[in-house]
Amino acid sequence: MLTASVITNIDKNNQNTINDFFMDIALNEAKKGIGFTSPNPLVGAVIVKNNKILSTGFHKRDGQAHAEVIAIKKLSEKKVKDSDLYVNLEPCSHYGRTPPCTDLIIKSKIKRVFIANKDIDNRVNGKGIEILKKAGISVKTHIMEKKGKNLNSIYFFNKKNNRPYIVIKAAVTLDGKIASFIGDSKWISNEKSRQIVHKLRLRLKSIAIGHNTVIKDKPQLNCRLKGFEKKPIDKLVFTEKNTEKFRFAENSGNIYIINRWLSSDKKNFIDFCNEKKIDSVLVEGGSHVYSWFLNNDLVDRIFLFYKPAFLGNDGIPLILERKINHIKNLSDFKINDVKLMDDNFMVDLARGEALCLLV
């Protein structure tokens, strides 16, 4: 909670400045839910009266109370009446696992609602705003809209495209090898590069990995950023051995088998992800899995961490055969960023809009 002395530093005669100030606090509240709300968006709320913060709230987990409800229920009816609500996403107006937030906002007699982004979920998509306006509540939108969009970039992508946002990450040598001829890959990437990978694991819902990589490397596939060790990450294991049990870090998400039928057609895979509410995938190898996503044109982003060395022709390649006969048939990725990271360098590639992932 901010102190009154901090709040008085804003220009009280400039409503736009006031709105940005409090919306920024709402966005920072929303960030507290990073890693735990998927497939729900990140939402924070701030209740203000006379330019003073009365309460805050954020959506903690999928299925739990929404940010607006948490903030409102911290206050008495008298305190919340005639207050302003700042929330980074349009309040919901439908029944799901929780009641509509619009009902409680109206019942609480909140005077004004300030919103960063309209919710493009078909169940909402302007309906929440319209309901509040019809109830006599003043509604202002598009406040710090870009920052709000960046925070929920995966959510908006998933709702717009009806499929997960898919990211490849790989540590490679300069000649495009991910391991030596005996399968040794520790460590092509350095510690700084691996920190970026854990930031991606924090933001993305699932990890796709091949059966052979699981058996050989025995990866934990968890997030090892401080405070986020228990962040749930679903595992998508590409394999034809349905009976085998795979073990990863404890209490770290569901394990799904991507069998021959699910990988026989990209529509089957997308439908499966939608059914399991998987809004994003981090592809972590090996070569067969990387190649499957590329050959099925299911890659939106690539993070390559290069070691300035060569393994040679007998090393294990990042990508297997693609059967492309002419260079003109290649589909290019856009270079989004290149960054030196001690003795590694990172190349960040994107197809379409490069979503904000490293919040």
Task: Provide keyphrases for this structure.
single chain; alpha/beta; 8-stranded mixed beta sheet; 5-stranded mixed beta sheet; 12 helices
Summarize the structure.
The protein has 359 residues and is α/β, with parallel strands linked by helices.
Q: Could you explain the architecture of this structure?
A:
The chain is of the alpha/beta class. It contains twelve helices and 15 strands. The chain has helices at 4-7, 15-31, 67-73, 77-80, 101-107, 127-134, 145-151, 153-161, 191-203, 211-217, 266-275, 287-295, and strands at 44-49, 52-58, 84-89, 112-117, 138-140, 165-173, 177-179, 206-210, 234-238, 255-258, 280-283, 301-307, 316-317, 334-341, 344-350. Strands 10-9-8-11-6-12-15-14 form an eight-stranded mixed beta sheet. It has a five-stranded mixed beta sheet with strand order 2-1-3-4-5, with helices on both faces.
